[in-house]
Amino acid sequence: MALFRINRYLGGEEDATEDRSQALLERLREQARARQLKKQQQVLLPSDELKQKKTGNELHQKLKHSGFDSENEYQREAKKRKRGHSGEGSCGEGEKKLRKNHQVSSDSEKPLAGADSGLAGEAANGYIPAKKKKNENGKKSSLSQKKIEADLDENNRQQENKSNLKRDKAKRKKERDISTEVETNGAEIAEKDRSEEVKGNQSTKEKVCIPTLNEKATLPPSSSLVLGGSDRRAVQKVQPILPQWLAQPKLVHKRIKENLVPIQDVAGIHPKLLKKLQMNGIESFFPVQGEVIPAILENASSGFLVGRGGYQPSDICVSAPTGSGKTLSFVIPVVQALLERVVCQVRALAVLPTKELAQQVSKVFNIYTDGTGLKVVLVTGQKSFGKEQETLVQRTVMGYCSLADIIVATPGRLVDHIDQTPGFSLRQLRFLIIDEADRMIDDMHQNWLHQVVKAVFRAEEDSGTNMLFQRTEPGPVTAASTCCPQIPLQKLLFSATLTRNPEKLQQLGLYQPRLFTSVYSEKRAVTAGTETEQDAEKKYTLPEGLSQYYVPCNLNSKPLFLLYFMLRMKFTRVLCFTNSKQTSHRLFLLIRAFGGVNVAEFSSWLTPSERQRTLKEFEQGKIQLLISTDATARGIDIKGVKCVINYDAPQFIRTYIHRVGRTARAGKVGLAFTMLLKVQERKFLQMLRDAGTPDLEKQLVKSEYLKPLLPQYEEALSKLQKTVKDERAQKRA
Ligand SMILES: Nc1ncnc2c1ncn2[C@@H]1O[C@H](COP(=O)(O)OP(=O)(O)OP(=O)(O)O)[C@@H](O)[C@H]1O
After folding, report:
1. From CA 85, how far away is CA 98, in angstroms rounded?
2. What separation in Å is there between the alpha carbon of 159 and the centre of ligand 1?
3. Cβ(367) – ligand 1 distance below 6 Å
4. Quick one: which H or E segment has residue 199?
5. How far is it, in rounded angstroms, from Cα 422 to Cα 417?
6. Which of 285, 327, 364, 493, when mutated, tests ligand 1's pocket best, judged by the most ligand atoms within 8 Å of its CB?
7. Residue 34 and residue 134: Cα distance in Å, rounded?
8. Is the CB–ligand 1 distance for residue 318 below 6 Å?
9. 579 alpha carbon to ligand 1 midpoint, in Å?
């Protein structure tokens, strides 16, 4: 150990201290030999190996055979030395570890064993134990030894600081290269050592610090060191550390049919609602409903004005496949919680990204509030602003009063009403439902959530003494915060592709959230009511009844493939997605020009009423093929869609999940085809694999099936050209 210190010392001021260091070196070598002998007597081979390394030139020859040049081990040993001259005990321990590590990392154990026995033989050459030698040298020697050691310690520290950066860098590089360089380095060291021996003691540093020597051989001059380097390394996947609620969610069965829960088995559902469910043909709840409905009802068991036991209820996040029945899992408990309300106030607000979705959800609310006295108002901008205001509030001699118990809205229009509708108040809001929550988080730049929360906790003139229930934003639970009863605001989030990114979810300001998810590996057993680990690799779940294929094609043959599916395969109720309005429109014109298929298009180019009509006709079966942008990709529940065709491959996995989720809904079966150009194949399939979705089957279409379509197709193309020209002219006019 001391020898090493000297070496380091010499490394710093080699020329100036040459004589002194030689003398010291000699003395310490003797000590080392003595220790070696002692060790030898204890037959501790691993210690010998290290000591031989430290002892100097003659031992390098043997070390090279053992392949001992791991920078790691060297650094560890150096650290020990730095910690102090702690004696034989700790050194031996370190050496044992070293030996153990070395045995693991060494390419072959046999040469090492050979080297060990050789070292043992060297050590047996009459070395004197260190303690004895110390005594012999007397007090003078021991004093000077202490002084030297103190000097060395100081110099060590200085040297250590100087070379720290360089060594760290070299260490990293060394670790990378160590497995391949062991043998080469050994040979290099041996060669160097032989020449160093001739030079004498002044180069002891280089001989002892084997890794340093190797670094010198491999690294560029320090002035041209490139931090980080440009070596290619396999990048290790970083596994995020999730908060407990995300890491250990409540798992929900994804197989719908096998896990139906009879509606009577879910405790606490109001008889009125049970009757309504049955009237709507619902005898059993889907798994997500079986889990989430009781969880929300439990929080509202003491009425909607206070949380259970007076506490703020947990916010609820639900991630379940498309078509698994998420809508009913919030509609039923929210309607039930509000059944007993006396005064009409806005107590539930559902926010959705599009008008069509909001309309769809408001329809479901209407079904279950019908005959209960609860009022549902749709706020999406489909009516004029003034008309919407009239549906929301009424001015009376007593002031404004609400006309809505439940509002279903799109975020933009909602914020307009918060800002501009006199008497519109959210101060009694109990449930905030965010459907398609991941999409709504993406839209968070609109700041709509902040506006809603501000409106909920807004202090008004009449607040304070005459308010039975005060409202303050939830914070840490303290004695003071629990002394006044609060109307809790509970957030309920739903999506088939809910993000697990805590940073994104944090934007929603969730309160002690609970996660219900169907994202788990098939191998893991899920028993209702138990909480099992999620599969970190699996990000999304697709409906069980969905069969997915991809169709390799080229750009020109794409429309022919679509015609093949419609005319030869005789698919009906096909929803076909493109990536733009333009493509949707042209494809629609082309298929229409070809004839034989009842086709329509759906995009933001259509007016809201046209869109509504189109969806209705598609659901009724009047339209065989609906060519759409992603406007219908999310949430839209069209009964009887048998097949989804991705005419353009979606760019994002979430888009894919939602698009193909328009079929195979409510436990039914469905087909999904994705047309892939050669250049898209690898990347697209990898994207699906990365998301943990099952591999797509390749579906080839024989060219002989397409050939008969060609003449008519050529004709359709020329018709299309003409139509496009006419449309352009019309636009210009
Ligand atoms: N318990 C049930 N029994 C029978 N049908 C049901 C039941 N629950 C929901 N459904 C039907 O299943 C279909 C899909 O439901 P819903 O639209 O709520 O799915 P979702 O999970 O919200 O899908 P997405 O993620 O695509 O929005 C609807 O047509 C709905 O009427």
Report:
1. 18
2. 70
3. no
4. helix 130-199
5. 8
6. 327
7. 10
8. no
9. 26
Q: Which residue has the higher pLDDT, 396 or 48?
A: 396
Six token digits for residue 163: 């070379």
- pLDDT over 70 at 388, yes or no: yes
Helix (H) or strand (E) holding 644: strand 643-646
Which residue's alpha carbon is at the smallest distance from atom 8 of ligand 1? 325
Q: How confident is the model at residue 599 (pLDDT cuts 50, 70, 90)?
A: very high
With DSSP H G I counted as helix, E B as strand and the rest as coil, what are the percentages for the chain, rounded to 5? Answer: 55, 10, 35
| Residue 518 in contact with ligand 1 by CB distance below 6 A | no
Distance CA 406, CA 440 (A): 19
The preferred substitution site among 258, 278, 319, 324 for testing ligand 1, maximizing ligand atoms within 8 Å of CB, is 324
327: Cβ below 6 Å to ligand 1?
Answer: yes
pLDDT band at residue 501 using 50, 70 and 90 as cut-offs: confident
Looking at per-residue pLDDT, the higher value among 65 and 588 belongs to 588
Average pLDDT score over residue span 270-278: 95
Q: Which amino acid is at 476?
A: P
First to last CA, the chain: 93
Confirm if 581 and 610 have CB atoms less than 8 A apart. Answer: no
Question: Does any ligand 1 atom lie closer than 6 A to the CB of residue 588?
Answer: no
Q: Is the dihedral of CA 101, 103, 108, 114 positive or negative?
A: positive
Cα(286) to ligand 1 centroid in Å equals 8
Question: What is the pLDDT confidence band of residue 287, given thresholds at 50, 70 and 90?
Answer: very high
Q: Residue 18's pLDDT is what?
A: 55
Q: Which of 53-62, 101-110, 134-143 has the lowest mean pLDDT?
A: 101-110
Q: What is the pLDDT, as a whole number, of residue 731?
A: 86
Reported as a pLDDT band with limits 50, 70 and 90, residue 466 is very low
Please tell me which residue, 204 or 697, carries the higher pLDDT value: 697
Ligand 1 centroid to residue 701 C-alpha, Å: 34
Would you say the CB of residue 405 lies under 6 angstroms from ligand 1?
A: no
Element (H, E) at 433: strand 431-435
**What mean pLDDT do residues 267-293 have?**
95
Distances (CA, A) of 279 to 10, 290, 372, 620: 93, 19, 15, 21
Instruction: Indicate if ligand 1 lies below 6 Å from the C-beta of 326.
Output: yes
Sign (positive or negative) of CA dihedral 359, 360, 361, 366: positive
**CA 349, CA 432: separation in Å to the nearest integer?**
5
Mean pLDDT of 105-134: 35
Q: Which atom of ligand 1 is the closest one to the Cα of 634? A: 26
b/e map 157-180, b = 16+ CB within 10 Å: eebeeebeeebebbbebbeebbee
Rounded to an integer, the average pLDDT of 266-290 is 95
In angstroms, what is the span from residue 546 Cα to ligand 1's centroid? Answer: 15
CA distance 39 to 3: 17
pLDDT per position as a tens digit, 374-386: 999 999 998 999 9
The protein residue whose alpha carbon is closest to atom 22 in ligand 1 is 326
User: Does the structure show a pLDDT above 70 at 171?
Assistant: no
495 Cα nearest atom in ligand 1: 25
Give residue 290's pLDDT: 95
**Most confident option among 12-26, 53-67, 235-249, 637-651:** 637-651
499 CB under 6 A from ligand 1?
no
| Residue 328 near ligand 1, beta carbon < 6 Å | yes
Q: Output the six-digit token pair for 419.
A: 């800002």
Residues forming beta bridges with residue 316, ordered by sequence position:
492, 514
Q: Give the residue from 416, 351, 405 showing the smallest Cα distance to 381.
A: 416
ipTM (interface pTM): 0.99
Q: Can you read off the two tokens belonging to residue 616?
A: 């209705």
Do 219 and 484 meet the contact criterion of CB atoms below 8 Å apart?
A: no
Distance 645 CA to ligand 1 centre (A): 21
